[in-house]
Amino acid sequence: MTERAYELDARVSSAVFRAIDDLNQMLPQEHWLAKSRETPILGPTAVLDSMGFVNLIAAVEESIAADLTAKAAAIHID
């Protein structure tokens, strides 16, 4: 994997983990998602139901949008 791919991978993981933090705040503790690449988010062993999955995807989208907005603002300031 190239250095750029590692950087992108780290940014995506960070956005997903921030989204998991946001989602966990809305869930009872027994339904919290672990912040791990091995955490199943779909299928028979997943903790989330279909609405929880939709909420996670929306939270990931918001996390990425916030990150991109912050980077765009920093570019304009420089």
Arithmetic mean pLDDT: 84
What's the number of helices? 2
Give a quick account of the main beta sheet: strands, pairing sense, barrel closure. none
Class inferred from helices and paired strands:
mainly alpha
| Bulk shape | globular
What is the H/E string?
HH
Describe what you observe in this structure.
By secondary structure, the chain is mainly α. It has one domain. It contains 2 helices and no strands. Helix 1 packs across helix 2. It is globular. It starts with a helix and ends with a helix.
Write the layout of secondary structure elements.
Elements (H helix, E strand, L loop, with lengths): L2 H24 L23 H28 L1
Helix pairs in contact: 1-2
Can you give me a brief rundown of this structure?
The chain is an all-alpha fold and 78 residues long. Helices cover 67% and strands 0% of the residues.
Main attributes of the structure:
78 residues; 67% helix
